[in-house]
Specification:
This protein is mainly α and about 160 residues long. It has helices at about 30-40, 45-55, 60-85, 90-100, 110-125; strands at about 15-20, 20-25. A hairpin with a 2-residue loop joins β1 (about 15-20) and β2. It is flat, with a radius of gyration of 20 Å. The termini are far apart.
Length: about 160
């Protein structure tokens, strides 16, 4: 028995990130280890447990609350490092400059960083929902077409 060839799941076109009137470009297929580290944040199972309990508002002692705060700060740094690692060099330079910008239309907020990070993680893990469009296949295994399965004709 032979499995299906999943070679087509490795995209080759840069990912475009439109943000605040700028377009940034990210690597379409960064190293798997980089993405996995970004997803787990390099945390141990015990760290993940503390982070989940903090997120759920579960009762915690002082040591656990301190650990949750440290994990949160490390997580934010991890988001920013991940973005710098996956953005193309020219895009990474502009992104970094726009993160330091203040009061300009191009300025990037922390909320925008986190939103882009989440979208990229979904894209890289293959869990990003697809949106039908009239375009042809874009190299990511999506045809842009719509299914007519189960549709009834007029009459």
């Amino acid at each position: 028995m032979q499995l299906e060839d999943f070679s087509s799941l490795k995209p080759t076109e840069d990912i475009e990130i439109p943000l605040n009137g700028q377009t940034y470009y990210a690597d379409p297929a960064p190293a798997t280890e980089l993405v996995l580290d970004a997803i787990t944040g390099g945390m141990t199972d015990a760290d993940i447990d503390v982070a989940l309990r903090a997120e759920q508002g579960a009762p915690m002692d002082q040591a656990e609350m301190s650990k949750a705060a440290r994990l949160g700060m490390n997580s934010t740094r991890g988001v920013l490092t991940f973005l710098q690692d996956v953005l193309r060099p020219e895009s990474a330079e502009r992104w970094a400059a726009n993160m330091k910008a203040k009061g300009t239309p191009e300025a990037i907020s922390l909320a925008q960083c986190v939103a882009v990070y989440r979208a990229l993680i979904q894209e890289y893990s293959g869990s990003r929902p697809t949106t039908p469009s009239a375009s042809s296949q874009n190299g990511r295994g999506r045809t842009g077409g719509t299914s007519t399965a189960g549709a009834r004709g007029k009459g």
